[in-house]
Amino acid sequence: MTATLEHPSAAATATRQLLNVRNLNVSFTAGRGRPGAPNTQRYHVVKDVSLSLAAGECLAIVGESGSGKSVTARTLVGLPGGTARVQADALELAGHQVAELGERQWRQLRGREIGFVLQDALVSLDPLRPVGREIEEALRLHGWGNRRSRAAKAVELLASVGVPNPEIRARQRPDELSGGLRQRALIASAIALDPKLVIADEPTTALDVTVQAQILQLLAGMKDRGTGIVLISHDLSVVATLADQVAVMQGGAIVEQGPARRVLQDPQHEYTQALLDAVPSAHTKGTPLSKDGRARITATSRRIRTERPAEAPPVLQAEGLTKSYKGPDGVQRTVVRDVSFELGVGETLGIVGESGSGKSTTARMALAMLEPDAGRVLLDGGAWTGISTAARRSRRRLVTVVYQDPLSSFDPRWNAERILLDAISRTDFPTEAERTARAAELAGQVGLQTEHLAKHPLQLSGGQRQRLAIARALAPEPEVIVLDEAVSALDVSVQAQVLDLLSDLQQELGLSYLFISHDLGVIHHMSDRVLVMKDGLAVEQGSADQIFNSPRQPYTRELLASLPQLPSGAAATEGGLA
Amino acid sequence: MGTVDTSPGTGQETKQETENDGGSSASARGTGPDARQRRGASRRADKLPASPGLRRAGGRLLTALGVVWAAATFTFLIQALLPGDRATLLLNQLTGQVQERTAEELAPINAQYGFDDPLIVQYLRFLGDLATGNLGESYQLHKPVASVIADQIGPTILLTVASLIVAWLISVVVIVGTAKRSRPVSALASGLEAVAAGLPQYWLGVILLVVFALNLGLFPVVGGTGFAGLVLPALTLGIPLAGFLGQVTRTEFEKAMDQPFALSARMRGMGDTGVRVRHVLRHSVLPGVTLSGWALGSLFSGAVIAESIFSRPGLGKILVTAVNSRDLPVVCGIVILVAAIYVVANLLVDLAYTLIDPRLKNS
What we know:
Chain A is of the alpha/beta class. Helices cover 35% and strands 24% of the residues of chain A. In chain A, a hairpin with a 2-residue loop joins β15 (374-379) and β16. Chain A is globular, with a radius of gyration of 26 Å. In chain B, α13 (286-309) packs across α14 (315-324) and α13 packs antiparallel against α15 (328-356). The two termini of chain B are 46 Å apart. Chain B: Keywords: Cell membrane, Membrane, Transmembrane, Transmembrane helix, Transport.
């Protein structure tokens, strides 16, 4: 029961090897049976994973949800969770053999030798406590200093991760800080004792692109100072900016591993290739992203989207939209100020901006779910806002919407078919048989099988749910679909399929899309024209190519510069560090 | 009509004092130079622009006063409108005989208590008396109700607070120890909580008395006011409440254990117990705190059971005697007091809310 750890072996210190994992296997018991009971089933979620990392390097583990990358990361700090059974030929961390460690010894390693950064500091830091307390706690747990020196050190650490006014920030709770500041605070709590190894599990997911760039820079700085970083991510462009080594995981196993530049520019495994192809960007414009998409429609049959006639008649026009709200402190805030745009028939207008830029409020006014304080929206040249709900009702079906998380907009007790039937007009399809046929037709249009129609929303995968939401939006035969972060919660390969589907539907049905996203790559891939928003203002508006290739406004340039780039095959730029 | 004129003024005094010192019953009378000075102080404060927080606090106090006023009005109406002549009742109690009385016999009593006045006059006088802390006189004990209550309130408050503490201690220990552990452990604990919540207090009290006082002799059979005499009554009231608290806390606790901040703390090197006590517990107590506001009032009225089983002094016994002998002023006084305690308890709950979850301050 000794609580001390043996000293790091001399050999390991010499090679500065921080991580040596050979044939790691993790399995979980599922079901309600007791462990070892005959009816229990073991799920093998990490299979023969081998990893290594030297000081001052970054190893990225890439994969989609369910690939086992997070379980792998947690196993590295001895917290795989639940009923996990861990086996490995070698499990060496920061010079310690950790395979046989007891809980007390693990606790000495965590925080001191290994720092762990989770995503979304709003919930990864205790939401009821000031962030300074969380950092002090990391110090206290390892017996560092006294109360006063810990408080001082916490402020110092906040300053070192680039938090301005650290004395004030230390006393604020995560919900009182911006997304970037609280993520920095979370990182400060993980690196408080200067661990040799930092594991970051999706550290920039849910952050705005400019903030993401700052956090990546912070991590790069730590790497330069000799910290080893294990970066877990689903985002290949984030990985490209930071990683020296990349391991691609699929179904619990590593399918490809090697130097970052080699893996990202010359992928050997077809899964890696598919992942890279699925990333929407400037280069993918007008081409399908997913394999299925390519099989169904060849690139040549696609309309060349940049050559759209500019004089397409507008279906939706917004003129000088303004909306303000009164905050809890009684101060009036203008969230959207004088925003105007036009959406042509069969066109996609991308609205891009960071959180709080007013893009979702603009979308709600375009949907006439929210009355603007000033300005108006016209639909097919007729008034769309500023009229009574009754006057709008007959045309309500012309504008529909798909949200980021459709689950909350489905009745969980209805199956997919009933959800669709509910959205089908009883005037257009008077008989039961006609409506059922229409539901089947809609399901076919979005690539759902007959078997999916009998399922409930919770039994569908994220991609299938989003397809169902799209089918429901199509049901009333709209002219315009507002897509509010509609693909933001999806894995990259699923996102690719849904984006392909949206492109196909637009072409078949002549739909107009108001496409709202924080993801510049997605916006560039999908949009004919782009509206850039910041702090409620329309900063810049123009064709997608103009906005992305020759932005006029400083803010647009800043936004584009923050975007992590994949090294593109031939045009190999500076790989590694950006 | 003199009392009518003074009542708004005194009412305001009481309100301001509650604002100043949390409405302790000792200073609620609101007389003397001290009170006048304070009134002046808060009048000056009125001229300052009120912050939203202050306005909210003021609103809450007004609501609280409204609740007490409603309870008082209700008890007044019961006294005045219930069948049976109050003068007859009083006279019968005085003489110890139950019989019809003649008008001549009743006249002096009606005059003394003002039972002949119009109802509205009686009501306003009642409110005026209430505002000055005068709850009337007991028909049976011939003492002011306020002093009857004041004599006996101490042991009851002690018992109530002790029961609440016992309930919290039990439920927190059980939750921290068993929530989100292996299935059999948490299922067993959760089952025990359900059973505890369903235990009738009088049955539990008798069992505790028989086992721990009579058979084992660990505690006195007739509870005095000392600590040893407090244990069994507090357990009698506290164990069922612990069951309720445990049930509302457990779900929240298990939810909080799954939150990323709990994992974050583990990854800093904190142990499982540390995470439970230092992080998760605080996230799970809000529903229990809400319940405690209700429980404090309910324990106060439930104290009668524990007091009679363990022969403790306290308001419970007074209430039982008063109900049996139809001593209406005492019953009404206790009802108003319990209403006031509910109100104070809920103000404390609101205060505790923002201490536990500071985010609520802004919403």
